[in-house]
Amino acid sequence: MKTVKLKSFFGNIQPEAGCDEAGRGCLAGPVFAAAVILPDNFEHLLLNDSKQLTEKQRNELRIIIENESLAWAVASVSNEEIDKINILNASILAMHKALEKLTIQPEFIIVDGNRFKPYKNIAYKTIVKGDATYKSIAAASILAKTHRDEFMEKIAVKYPQYDWRQNKGYPTKKHRAAIAQYGTTPLHRLSYKLLDTQIEIKF
User: Does residue 203 register a pLDDT over 50?
Assistant: First the structure.
């Protein structure tokens, strides 16, 4: 796997926090988000957008990021809340919750994607493909992904028929087939199209 050279910071306003989320496209489970403030000298050859890494690499980097960050936090928003306020608002809320949990308040925030809402009047910048551009956003993507995967693997024990240990709640054929056969769980997002054949979901 080729290494990538990510940028340390967007600007000169410090401390700068990177934010990203995981699980927007899932049919079940919460959406998770992370906020990370990295030190000036943070370097790791494998650091990249979490989607470009193997599970083993993500888990290794998670430990390093959590140990070497100036501050980091992970937060989630439940599937019930996602159904109430929609996934975009839930993702932003999860990022706000993660920022709130940081032990250092950032002076600037950079966010993966193109949508965000102001947080505590702190200046921010949204960056499309930011998780493949900036170290702190890549680090946040790794923490959000690994913490969410860990949650789904634990809850999978209670609902083994949905194969969440493997699919983590994403819309695989096996996951959709299990919904068709067994119905939904309290973890499913009822505002999503859960079955390929369904026209609408009855609440």
Answer: no
